[in-house]
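Everyone, carefully examine this protein record:
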Amino acid sequence: MSVRYSARLSRSWGRTNLDRHTISLAPELKNNAELLDAVLCHELAHIAAYILVGHSERPHGPTWQRLVADAGHRSAARLADDTIAPSSRHAESRRYLHRCPICDFSRRARKPMPSWRCSDCVVSGLDGVLIIEENRP
């Protein structure tokens, strides 16, 4: 297993490759030990849950939730609203909000991206179609 910082992460704090057991973290985490701990716990729980149950559960399913809670963290798929994500650096240039009507996942882009899908909903057997809303200044 390996952990590295990647400047390519612009929309999330961390990303896990389950097959390779690698974790990539946003460089902004280097200066925030508390946030780094929470994000690393979140990503490590993905690897541990994958080792325990494979793909038989959703990415933020019961095994993942139990592992995160046992480590003393909040078992949430996303950080609290008051935590500024890396994507906020360029939020003003992202005019279109793509939102999942089922789980409320959201993502922004400069242009409408009708091919995007909510991956958690697709894994659950749903179509994962996102609602696209234009943000006007």
User: Anything to note?
Assistant: The CA atoms of residues 2 and 22 lie 5 Å apart. The longest strand covers residues 2-5. Residues 33-53 form the longest helix (21 residues). The two ends are 44 Å apart (CA to CA).
